[in-house]
Amino acid sequence: MLISKNWIIRLLNNAGNEGWSVTDEELDAGFVRVGFETEGYAPIEETTGPLVFGRVLEIEELTGFKKPIRYCQVDVGQANGTGEPQGIICGARNFAEGDTVVVSLPGAVLPGGFAIAARETYDHISNGMLASAAELGLTAKSEGIITLDGEHTPGEDARGVLGLRDTVFDVNVTPDRGYALSARGLAREIASAFGLEYTDPAEAPAVAGVEVGKVASISEKLIDVDLEPSTKAKRFGLRKVEGIDPAAPTPFWMQRELMLSGVRSVNAATDVTNYVMLLLGQPMHAFDADKIAGNLRVRNAEAGEQFETLDHVTRTLLPTDVVIADDNGIQSLAGVMGGTTSEISDETVNVYFEAATWDELTVAKTARHHKLSSEASRRFERGVDPQLVEVALDVACALLVDIAGGEISARGTIVGGVPAREPITMRVSRPSELIGVEYSAETVARRLREVGCEVEIARDEAEVTPPTWRGDLTVPVELVEEIVRLEGLDEIPSILPTPKGGRGLSPLQRRRRAVTHALAYSGYAEIIPTPFMKNDTFDVWGLEAGDPRRNTVKVQNPLDAEYGVLGTTLLPPMLEAVGRNVSRGRRDLALYSVAQTAQKRGDVSPLPSVAARPDEKTLRELLESLPEQHLHAATVAVGKQELEGPFGPGRDYTWADAIQSAQVVAAAAGVRLEVAAAEYLPWHPGRCAALKVNGTVVGHAGELHPQVLEALELPARTCAMEIDLTALPFDAELPAPMLSAFPAVHQDIALVVDEAVPAEAVRRTVEEAAGELLESVSLFDVYRSEQLGEAKKSLAFGLVFRAGDRTLTEDEASEARLRAAQAAEIAHGAVMRG
Questions:
Q1: Mean pLDDT across the stretch 60-85?
Q2: How far is C-alpha 220 from the geometric centre of its chain's CA atoms?
Q3: Can you state the angle between helices 5-14 and 183-194, rounded to 10 degrees?
Q4: Which of 176, 260, 534, 758 has its CA at a distance of 20 to 30 angstroms from the CA of residue 441?
Q5: How many CB atoms lie within 10 A of CB 157?
Q6: Would you tell me the crossing angle of helices 5-14 and 24-33 to the nearest 10 degrees?
Q7: How far apart are CA 685 and CA 680, in angstroms?
Q8: Can you point out the beta strands (E) in 528-576?
Q9: Strands (E), 678-805
Q10: Is residue 822 part of a domain?
């Protein structure tokens, strides 16, 4: 909200803080101190040199030019050094002989560096300029020059009366504090920020310079107003002022406040409604009473009904729009904008003032649908004090009569009452408990009364009744927020919490970190895949209907309708990432991810009441209905594992690299991984390995199925691995390393077996049979030839033997090697090569 500093100071001075003032910087800090950020502030640019009052003595209409021009004789007293009338050229038409105007004499410099000097124009010498509000920096645009009522001596300096030494603040009012979209609300906040007395202008309009004593109470009904329940309107008030002067100009002091608040001056009646809105926060509307036929009806619009608003746009209404209608039709779009049929004109002598309290959500929907955000709708959307209806009508009537004469009718209409606020019970110690700062009972009561609450304290319990304008105060914690806000957030000490002693990361967290580091060190790049996957992913893969991976959790309101399920595997989004990279020219890449998957456990989830804690049975049902979430690790690789160059032809990623990435994960997790051939989509049936721990399958690795790759438009021989980290045991199976100072004995063994015998099975047999002296065994060569025979292969293993207590002999190592060969012969039909 735009508001001038002087308006706030004037309200607070009149409230018992006479002589109080503040700098721009201090006022800005004051707003921030009570929780209102400002978008900035801008002082009115200074006018230097002679700027005085003048009285128009004579006007000569000049003819023969393209536009109407006037040559005026203006009395500026002794300000020109001679006392003679000053001849000034002016094109404005909004003044007459005898009017008091503002004159910038030669030597004055207006905002923007516009220097005033005597100059010849339109065949006359113009010795100065009659100033408009825009030329003095009060507004961006104005129609006509400034004219003033009251007694002002010609030649007297005009700056004080015009209020040119002022600053406009742009206060950012949050949606829950609609009361602050008014001088009334912001003055209350500044009073709290600086510890000042505060008197509410709604309770004592004299604080704002408005005398309402002459406004008689309503003695009889003005007209009938039917407030239909479907509109959700809370209150509606109507008063009448009769016999005003339609030509009466709005006084400059009111125009000034409107201009500095960003509101254009229109006419006296309309300006009064806007001024009351800015002062109290109650939007109003002025109807030409003679154009209203019969009684009023507040109703919902009919679908397709047409209505022309004051901006001269014909709008097609919806049944959700609320309108004010008379016997002739719609007269106003409630809470948003009036209509052209009954707007105030130059002939208006009788005025209806309307003030109401509309439903916040209804006004918001109407304003957004019609793209018609107004100053009124901004306030109604945030909530308006329902208690303001009567006082706003009284203030508006008093102001209009002071400006344009006329008589306030004793008749009026008020429909609807002010809903009573329910008291809130809060422990006095509650703010101290939540914030960690000691707030005394006196502080709690004082701060809550500052925001308008009624407070009664008995022992440690406070009964707080919020004011009608604070609809956002409904629970104790919101009262605590008000106390802390007004006491100052900067008064809360910054104390770092003392951590409790613990064991650090959980085992699963340590495992996740170890796996992540191991894969990164192995050359894989991490990506964070989306948890969602395409609805038809498993159809593309060709999974059977009963496959557990199809047991997905559906998202009720997905961001993308095609991605409406949570993934039971990490591969779908990772394969999409590979596809994007390949399509953009990146053909050699290896990616990994460690993230959670989700598998549905129940179709229905209970919806317990929020009024109380659910019982144990409901809690158990809730927990059992949650998806089962396991932590998975996955890798996907395509292209070259070793890039070609001067050092060699390079090497492609193969199924063996995918299995090796699983071994890297297993080593980081501290488990021993068993590898066995498997058929498991989306992997190639002949190049897929099941990953087992203690005989339980925990994942798969290998080359992806060609049909899947073709459907996803991925390169041939793309490899992938996925392993369930949650399924891995936490008791490490790897033996603790034994360090020995004695030398090792290296021996090799080559075993010829059938092609169908897995090399891993032979390696395990050799490892088990070689005995305790064997330190490690590794496959280093696979050889096939005609000499070996058809469907035969030779597996060459490197064996390392070492004793912990002595130097091992070659004979001991050879004996263990021979036992391993014999065991392989029995188990796999292996024949040892020479």
A1: 92
A2: 49
A3: 70
A4: 176
A5: 13
A6: 80
A7: 7
A8: 532-533, 553-554, 565-566
A9: 683-693, 696-704, 719-724, 745-754, 774-783, 792-801
A10: yes
Cβ neighbours, 10 Å, residue 110: 21
Beta carbons of 778 and 663 less than 8 angstroms apart: no
Specify the pLDDT at position 738: 65
The predicted pLDDT at position 603 comes to 75
User: 464 forms bridges with which residues in the sheet?
Assistant: 424, 455
How many other β-carbons are positioned within 10 Å of the β-carbon of residue 690?
18
Pair (271, 332) in one structural domain: yes
644: buried, middle or exposed (CB in 10 Å: 19+, 13-18, 0-12)?
exposed
Task: Tell me the pLDDT band of 737, cut-offs 50, 70 and 90.
Answer: low
User: What pairs with residue 595 in β-bridges?
Assistant: 632
Instruction: Identify whether residues 629 and 516 lie together within a single domain.
Output: yes
Cβ atoms of 281 and 181 within 8 Å: the answer is: yes
Q: Is the pLDDT confidence value at 735 over 80?
A: no
Rounded Cα gap, residues 704 and 681, in angstroms? 8
Diameter of the chain measured on Cα atoms: 134
Chain segment 113-158, per-residue pLDDT in tens: 999 999 999 989 999 999 999 999 999 888 899 999 878 999 999 9
Report residue 111 as tokens: 């905002």
Q: Per this entry, what is the length of the chain?
A: 834
Give the domain range for residue 15.
2-44+167-199
Q: What are the respective helix, strand and coil percentages of the chain, to the nearest 5?
A: 30, 30, 45
CA distances from 224 to 259, 283, 296, 325, 521 (A): 36, 21, 6, 12, 82
Tell me the percentage of the chain whose pLDDT exceeds 90: 83
Residue whose token pair is 């050879």? 814
Residue with token string 């992540």: 516
Average pLDDT of the segment spanning 585-600: 94
**Are 238 and 173 part of one and the same domain?**
no
Give the model's pLDDT for residue 96. 93
Backbone phi, psi, residue 96, to 5°: -140, 170
In this structure, are residues 144 and 92 in contact, taking their beta carbons and an 8 Å threshold? yes
pLDDT band at 426; cut points 50, 70, 90: very high
Q: What's the rounded Cα separation, in Å, for the pair 244 and 402?
A: 10
- Is pLDDT at 597 greater than 90 in this prediction? yes
Comparing CA positions, the residue from 354, 335, 328 lying closest to residue 231 is 335
Q: Among the listed ranges 228-242, 368-382, 601-615, 763-777, which one has the minimum average pLDDT value?
A: 601-615
Do 575 and 702 fall within a single domain?
yes
Helix (H, G, I), strand (E, B) or coil at 776: strand
Q: Are residues 320 and 396 in the same domain?
A: yes
For tokens 């960690």, name the residue. Answer: 436
Average pLDDT along the chain: 93
The domain that holds 477 is classified in CATH as 3.30.56.10
- In terms of domains, do 443 and 523 share one? no
Same domain for 283 and 237?
yes
Residue 730 maps to a domain = no
In this prediction, residues 250-275 reach a mean pLDDT of 95
Whether residue 141 is found in the same domain as residue 258: no
Residue 464 in tokens: 């707080």
pLDDT digits over 749-759, tens only?
Answer: 999 999 989 88
- What is the distance between the alpha carbons of residues 473 and 784, in angstroms, rounded to a whole number? 84
In this predicted structure, the answer to whether residue 494 has a pLDDT above a threshold of 90 is no
